[in-house]
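Long-time lurker. I teach an intro course on protein structure, and each term I like to show students one example going from raw sequence to a predicted 3D structure in token notation. This year I'd like something fresh instead of my usual example. Would anyone be willing to generate the tokens for the chain below so I can use it in lecture? Attribution to the forum is fine with me.
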Amino acid sequence: MDGAVKNIKLRVEDLQAQLQPTNKKLKGSQRKNAESELKHLMEQMTSAQHDIDSNKGKTQQLLAKKQSLAAKLNAKKTSLEKFKSGKL
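-- Reply from a regular --
Happy to contribute to a lecture. Here you go:
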């Protein structure tokens, strides 16, 4: 996902350079197409960044849950060992 965002950023930078007022290469419909593509890419980049942030949050939640479950499992194993050895 990060690679896709980097590609979008590169394309956005390229389009922004083409659309600079000092750059007179794009005229008429070419300029409008570039502006439209730039707008679309900015929307995609925003959406992709939101997805990345959301996935990072979910990853953190899952890691916390994994740690909690691992701690519970270890406690159960310890309790079972104590039970087997007659300490409980």
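Some talking points for your students: The longest helix spans residues 28-85. The chain has one domain: 2-85.
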